[in-house]
Design brief:
single chain, about 425 residues, alpha+beta, Nucleotidyltransferase, domain 5, Alpha-Beta Plaits, 2 domains, seven-stranded antiparallel beta sheet, six-stranded mixed beta sheet, about 20% strand, disordered N terminus
């Protein structure tokens, strides 16, 4: 692993005079108290342990928390989907909108960085923005960042603020996190402040805990390729579906939602609207439970329903398109339906491209449910069930390859147990 370039002077992150914009999506009746199953004395900062490193790691200087969290770090790296963290970082950066410089964590020095938190938990909220000059879109534009101290996750919130996106917002996605475009209008905290804070807080040995952290890293523009200690709680727990056979369990690579982990591991109900402080604390406690149980944790039953259906009261008038190539545009999709089905969609939402794979997905909304069903039925090809049990077809492209079109509703006989991010 190549060492990052030398960093500028290290600043005390606690003494920064930053324009914090406070926000909370938590109901007044809810609290961020430590969950029932996780007691305060399970936090890693209260324990002692000796560092025992393998010969391959002798050149890396570790801090005292590493040994306590090594099992969770290794388990994260063993997961088949960890490959998303191992993609060429330069290619990832080139495929991300160039809205702000990336943060390259400083190389850990036990003397210089003794006062920095060694374990942190992070969660970010995002929106969709667009460059007014080039029309380039950023589907992971940061609009709120929350970081809690692993030494005291209940009470020590290191940073929690709304963030002013660099480009104008075209979709605030407030149905997920409650942050509307209006609430961001007068926010003074920008990506430059995020960069400044993370540069002062993070080293190559900082243990970072979160759920689906790859999205947070991309949103923060934090170079995770030099981070040695990533703990993604989505990778620590196996899941099962209702009525799943043992053979199907062996082939199952689905990931648990944070809500499912909270319900099973912490006996804690999560609010419908995401709150990034609560999510960061919950991810920490789920990781800490895995650590204290030495990885002997229960299998999580998949129960999460269709989250994105909250955008509309009904999704029967909507089709989901995925595996879209990088050069695909909203106009291309409109023409696709017009030519092959003779039905013009009411609305095609902005395409969300994965910066790691360059594969896109979007929702196509029709005037009526009948139009959506007719458009789906008119496409040539066999109708099959996808991993979530919904009807899906492949549309083959002239230049090779295919895209997939899928219904958003299930047959009455099917069980809805997976989200639309499925394939």
């Amino acid at each position: 692993m190549a060492a990052p370039p030398p960093q500028q002077q290290t600043f005390d992150f606690r003494s920064m005079n930053l324009p914090i914009a406070s926000f909370s999506a938590m109901p007044n009746t809810a609290t961020n108290d430590t969950p029932n199953k996780v007691l305060d004395d399970t936090c890693s900062s209260e324990e002692e342990g000796e560092i025992t490193e393998s010969e391959e790691e002798e050149e890396i200087v570790r801090h005292e928390e590493y040994t306590k969290w090594k099992l969770a770090i290794d388990e994260t790296k063993k997961h088949p989907k960890y490959t998303q963290y191992e993609k060429n970082i330069q290619e990832v950066k080139e495929n991300m909108p160039n809205t702000t410089p990336w943060v390259i964590p400083k190389v850990y020095n036990p003397t210089e960085h003794k006062g920095l938190p060694q374990v942190i938990a992070i969660d970010c909220e995002m929106c969709r923005t667009q460059n007014p000059d080039t029309n380039e879109q950023d589907s992971k534009a940061l609009c709120r960042i929350s970081i809690v101290n692993g030494a005291n996750p209940k009470d020590d919130v290191l940073l929690d603020t709304l963030v002013k996106p660099t480009w104008p917002i075209i979709d605030d996605v407030s149905f997920i996190h409650g942050i509307t475009s209006q609430k961001l209008e007068n926010v003074q905290f920008t990506m430059a402040h995020v960069n400044y804070f993370l540069s002062s807080l993070c080293t190559t040995e900082t243990i970072i805990i979160g759920h689906g952290l790859i999205n947070d890293f991309l949103s923060m523009r934090l170079d995770y390729s030099v981070m040695n200690n990533i703990i993604d709680t989505a990778f620590l727990y196996k899941v099962s579906f209702p009525n799943q056979t043992s053979e199907e369990q062996q082939l199952n690579t689905a990931l648990p939602s944070l809500q499912e982990l909270a319900n099973t591991i912490l006996t804690k109900n999560m609010p419908t609207i995401h709150d990034s402080v609560n999510d960061a604390q919950t991810a920490f406690y789920c990781a800490d439970y895995f650590r204290t149980q030495n990885g002997n944790v229960p299998i999580i039953l998949k129960t999460t329903k269709k989250r994105r259906d909250k955008r509309n009261d009904s999704s029967s008038d909507t089709l989901f398109l995925h595996r879209l190539p990088q050069n695909c545009t909203v106009d291309h999709i409109t023409q696709l339906f017009q030519i092959h089905t003779s039905i013009i969609p009411k609305n095609v939402q902005p395409i969300n491209f994965n910066p790691s794979t360059n594969i896109g997905k979007t929702f196509v909304i029709f005037t009526t449910t009948e139009h959506a069903n007719l458009a789906f039925d008119t496409f040539a090809g066999d109708c099959v069930k996808d991993a979530s049990g919904r009807n899906q077809k492949r549309i083959y492209l002239r230049g090779g390859g295919h895209v997939c079109v899928r219904k958003m509703i299930m047959d009455d006989s099917d069980d809805d147990s997976s989200s639309i991010d499925g394939e």
